[in-house]
Amino acid sequence: MPILNRAAELQTEVTEWRRHLHTKPELLFAVENTAAFVENKLREFGVDEIVTGLGRTGVVGLIKGNLGEGRTIGMRADMDALPMTETSGKPWASTTAGKMHACGHDGHTAMLLGAAKYLAETRNFKGAVAVIFQPAEEGGAGGHEMVKDGMMERFAIEEVYGMHNMPGMPVGQFGSRVGPIMASTDEFTITIDGRGGHAAQPHKTIDPIVIGSQIVTALQTIASRSVDPLFSVVVSVTKFNAGFAHNIIPEQALLGGTVRTLMPEVRDLAEHRIKQICEGLGAAYGAKIKVAYARNYPVTVNHRDETGHALSAATNIAGENQVSGDLDPMMGGEDFSYMLLARPGAFIFIGNGDTAGLHNPGYDFNDEAIPHGISYWVKLAEMRLAA
Ligand SMILES: [Zn+2]
Ligand SMILES: [Zn+2]
């Protein structure tokens, strides 16, 4: 079955919503206008219940089916943009310098609203659909906030699904996989306190730059010598700040970076090795080294049965050869991971065509994907909540 006729009819209207949201990007939890837009639309559609302010600025709409009592499934979109300046040159480009929808969350929100409109019109299912609009996906763990706020219990959500666009994947295609699909994203900061002094008398100093350089090199062995080569890990030092003059060895150096993994065991190992390496090198050179390790988003792990349901809905819409059930996992992070820790569910990617990449200043969500995304959501709801 191809995309639903009604979803195709909705494309023009949903594209308008998407472009409107695109002109007015908002960051992290400060998505008040976007959340108000979502709330107004849900009210217009006549959904049965709307709750705002969940997880600070999240919105949930509950749509009850016409085919009787039943379970509730959750379908989630994210609303926030990124702190960067757009260069797409599109007529609907961001009107605010330093804020931009460079991850397509405007498209995700618009497509889920389109599906909500469709489902509120037809209600051809039993039980209920909770449409979830979350703030702060880009680093604020807004999804986690909504879970902590009791969203799953409040709406009796039994399964939860998420969708993200993927540049480079043709429009009309979908992809997912069972198990880890997105990485955990941790951050570390290493402070090296040595002893500063004259650059011409290095023997009287404890040079934090030399020690920092050895730490950077030693950290490379986590991927190459500590973790099983069949498993994935990224350890990247992305900051190295020290010194201010050509003739002074500084007191202190600061390193910062990120760790990405697809398995909890590898995550634990990487954290342990970073601390161990720093402790050892600190002892060897007589420097005080502090490691601050912050665990951010956990691994996004798709559940087996629900991934099967997501892939069947996608296949129903797009046809078998347009759907991959064996997509390679990615080392980016997703805070939908927190919803998948709270309830079984699955995260799926939808083709965004040949556009600039995510988080690129030239990126724009592809409106051609809209009817495919709406159709996927509607089909998923109708299949999972069939009478
Ligand atoms: Zn992003
Ligand atoms: Zn995103």
Could you walk me through the main structural features you see in this protein, from its secondary elements to its overall organization?
The protein is α/β, with parallel strands linked by helices and 387 residues long. It has helices spanning 5-9, 11-23, 32-45, 105-122, 142-148, 151-154, 208-226, 264-285, 304-318, 336-342, 370-384; strands spanning 49-54, 58-64, 72-78, 128-134, 157-166, 174-175, 179-182, 184-193, 197-198, 233-242, 248-249, 252-261, 288-297, 300-302, 323-324, 345-351. Strands 1-2-4-3-5-16-6-15 form an 8-stranded mixed beta sheet, sandwiched between helices. Helix 2 (11-23) runs antiparallel to helix 4, helix 4 (105-122) crosses helix 11 and helix 7 (208-226) runs antiparallel to helix 8 (264-285). It has 2 domains: 5-182 and 299-384, Aminopeptidase, CATH 3.40.630; 184-294, Alpha-Beta Plaits (2-Layer Sandwich). The protein is built from 11 helices and 16 strands. A hairpin with a 3-residue loop joins strand 1 and strand 2 (58-64). Bound molecules: zinc ion (2 copies).
